[in-house]
Fold:
Amino acid sequence: MNNHNTLIVVVDHSAELYARDLVNRFSVMAPSWRFFGVGGDLMASAGVELIKNSRDLGVVGIFEVFSSLARLKRLQNTLIRECRKRKVKNAILVDYPDFNLRLAKKLSATGVCVYYYISPTVWAWRSGRIEWIRRYIRHLFLIFPFEEDIYKNSGIKHVSYAGHPLLAKIKADQSPETFRCHIGSTPGQELVAILPGSRLGEVKRHLPIMLDAIKKLATPSLHPVILKADSIPLSLLQTLLGPQKELVTIVPQAQGYNLIKASKIVLSTCGTATLEIALLGTPFVVVYRVNPVSYLLGKGLIRIKRFSIVNILAGHELVPELIQHQMTPSRIAAALEKLLNSTSAREKQIAGFSALSRQLDPGLKPTDHIVKTILEDQNITRHPEKENIHEQ
Structure:
């Protein structure tokens, strides 16, 4: 009898949404597979046995990762012990490369087949990770089509574009009028959505600057609305708002798509949210700051000029980016004012968003592709006579 007790590791909230869908698809296509490992409440709700809740694991920036190395290494060792105890043969690691690629090396040394979902951004920085993938990853599943050529041009064949999991998810379930009424927006007001991030450090760094920028806008009829990630305490947002809390509405993450669709413009940090905004078709501005030490350490390693995945996919600056020292209230306000007042600037972004959606291919079904590929691979590895064919 085959052992289908499988390790799965997912830390970031956005990645957890994709991983939950993957686990649910396994339950339909391969009901004998059982999962344990690292994740949050969504993974637990999908039936994953959590060895560690991911709630406090997410760190951003080189400095932050280094300062957490001892804690992360202990967790890796715990997972390796669990895999040995459970005689695990397969692992699925999702995103979070600073942790997961090191874990993949250890798992591979113990004979575990490691499948990796969501490629590290080797096209942006740390291209040396390609060699880690060559050595330790059985199959890499990509969510952006341009990544496939990068790996195959490096001689790595065990990669495939699965499609982007967001495409099937992004849909507002309320009309803009209904949503505005729901949050108490008065007639004639235009919503400006503020997305400060999903990690505590991000929100503390970003939100005060974002709020100062909104105060500088010359449009009195704007209604600012903050999207609160599930991982962020409401008390933190209220503290950062201070006297402005009577003027700003806070909505939960579950209302994110409704908020973005109903908004005139969006002010967002970098991350998955920028792709969600683009696919919903609302013009926006991107901002981001990291710890200054992390910025100085990483600046020389970055190989790209653009940071938002929307601009990377477009191949040019489709949406304004204000990164690190450029992220000031005055610059943000000027970029937002242009989108509020220029019809051509708005239409240019919206046309670019439509092209981006076509590029990602809405017809693909990522979870079906991943489950089928893993199951087919496992069938091959269980037949020794086919092993040599597979490895060529």
About this structure: Residues 59-63, 380-392 have pLDDT under 50 and may be disordered. The CA atoms of residues 381 and 387 lie 6 Å apart. The first helix runs from residue 13 to 29.
